[in-house]
Every structure is written in C-alpha cells, then in structure tokens.
Design goal:
InterPro entries: ArsR-like_HTH, HTH_ArsR_DNA-bd_dom, WH-like_DNA-bd_sf, WH_DNA-bd_sf
CATH architecture of one domain: Orthogonal Bundle
Strand content: 5-15%
Oligomer: single chain
CATH topology of one domain: Arc Repressor Mutant, subunit A
Shape: elongated
Largest sheet: 2 strands, antiparallel
Structural class: mainly alpha
Organism: Nonomuraea solani
CATH superfamily of one domain: Winged helix-like DNA-binding domain superfamily/Winged helix DNA-binding domain
Protein name: DNA-binding transcriptional regulator, ArsR family
Keywords: DNA-binding
CATH class of one domain: Mainly Alpha
Strand order of the largest sheet: 1-2
GO molecular function, one term: DNA binding
Radius of gyration: 22 Å
C-alpha cells in the first residue's frame, strides 16, 4: 500500500468499523474499551483498527499510562476535503455537459417519433 498521506487516509476510511470509530471520536475522546463497546469484535481487532487510523494520522492517543484516550485528528480529513474540492468543479462541468448531451439526444429522438 502506498505511504502517501492521502492514500493512507482513504485506505483508513474504506472500512466501516474505522469510520464508526471516527464518528464516535467526533463526540470526544474515548478509551479503547469505550470504542470497542458497540462492536462485536475483539479488543485486539479494535486495536488493529486504531493502529490503521493512527498511522493515517486520523487519531492520536494520549500517553497517560492508566488512561490512553484516543482523539480525532482532523487534518487528514481536511486534506481529503481539499482534494475532492479540487476536482469537484471539473466533475460538475462534465456532468453538466453530459446532461446537455442526453437532453439533446432525447429531443432528437422525440423529433423522429413525431415526424
């Protein structure tokens, strides 16, 4: 897997469990046990998901030995948003042109049916 930040972020976001973890962390810090609670998977599996999220920079973990809270880090999500925004205009223009072409074809077909 590529190690560039955008690829790591998209790969981390590709899994619904990791997206659910991020959604929970959007409400505030949580421990691994708190994050694991709603899922029917092992703590080890949750820890693996957290490592993927941490490697992508989407979460950070506190260093308190007794309570290592996880917190959401938004910078990678902002990078994804900027990347999408950069292309959104191009996609929108292409969809508009496609829509115009479809309407033109439909008008031509209607003209043949009524002619």
């Amino acid at each position: 897997m590529p190690d560039d930040p955008l690829s790591l972020t998209f790969a981390a976001l590709a899994d619904p469990t990791r997206r659910a973890i991020l959604a929970r962390l959007a409400d505030g810090e949580a421990t691994v046990n708190e994050l694991a609670e709603p899922f029917d998977i092992s703590l080890q599996a949750i820890s693996k998901h957290l490592k993927v999220l941490e490697r992508a920079g989407l979460i950070s973990r506190g260093r308190d030995a007794q309570w290592r809270p996880c917190r959401l880090e938004t910078a990678p999500l902002e990078t994804v948003s900027e990347w999408v925004d950069r292309y959104r205009g191009r996609w929108s223009d292409r969809f508009d042109r496609l829509d115009q072409e479809i309407k033109s074809i439909q008008r031509r077909q209607e003209g043949h049916e009524h002619g």
